[in-house]
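Fold this sequence, please.
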Amino acid sequence: MLRYPRPPPVVNVLATGGKVTSGTIAVPDINNNDGNEAGSDSYRFYSRDGTVGADWPNKNQWVSYIDMFDANKQVMFTSCQNIWSLPNDSGPEIDAIYDAIEEVARETLVVHRFILAVITQESLGCVRVHTRDGGVRSPELMQDHGGQTISGKIKWSW
């Protein structure tokens, strides 16, 4: 769980209608403490087909989602100002990111760690990140290629 008290946010996530359909990669249950605790912060290049036989780690060797989220919170708290000179995320906004990732993971069967990884790679979790447009719009936290913006469509309850 997150380490600061918060009211339960109401987050209306716009569903894409998409869902993982392969039984081998679909994640039907959310377990925030799955994985190998905090893991390690190192870079390793993986290629080929993503199997253990191709030297990829077993799922039980992955970092747990809660530890992955906690390891990225400080970046979320400071990235807006540090990178884009915008007001930083607040605690309730980071809570809303957490809740939205869980909701989208349940709706789409996409592993929550992957969703968080895309957010941290593309926007560092800054909820005010600008839409990139180099000929193709890439808006919001995930900088979705050709995506639609949802700014102003999220109902914050605090």
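Residues 65-84 form the longest helix (20 residues). The first strand starts at residue 132 and ends at 133.
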